[in-house]
Amino acid sequence: MTRTFTPKAGEVQREWLIIDATDVVLGRLATHAAALLRGKHKATFANHIDSGDFVVIINADKVVLTGQKAEKKKAYRHSGYPGGLKSVTYTELLEKNPERAVEKAVRGMLPKNSLGAAQLRKLKVYRGAEHPHAAQVPSTYIIDQVAQ
Q1: Residues 137-141: contacts with CB within 8 Å, 24+ apart?
Q2: What is the pTM of this model?
């Protein structure tokens, strides 16, 4: 009788992957990063185990939005107080804090529970080309179909 293999949390082999976000559409970048963080590219994927890899995204300030999303789409946050809803367009968000725009897009594609929070902690986003994770020897992940 064959049995289904279920990975244990301690048996997970994690890699470090680096993604260059230069001229990549934000949604496409977020879907690839979310799939890598979840571990869906591995043969041992199980949806109840955090089996994903660490993902480092560089050049977040060079990410692109298609159509008129940069001017019309808004990013919302709430202070927690009554009337504390703040909104900002993606043009302003990408100028001031492009890391937050990428993290917000990836967060929306992960599970909305403690497992998703653990997977999001493995995401590292940087504005420029420099990052402090050279000691982990990250391998390059290339996103195909970059054209808009």
Answers
A1: 137/16, 138/15, 138/16, 138/17, 138/18, 138/54, 138/56, 139/15, 139/16, 139/17, 139/18, 140/17, 140/18, 140/20, 141/17, 141/18, 141/19, 141/32, 141/36, 141/55
A2: 0.92
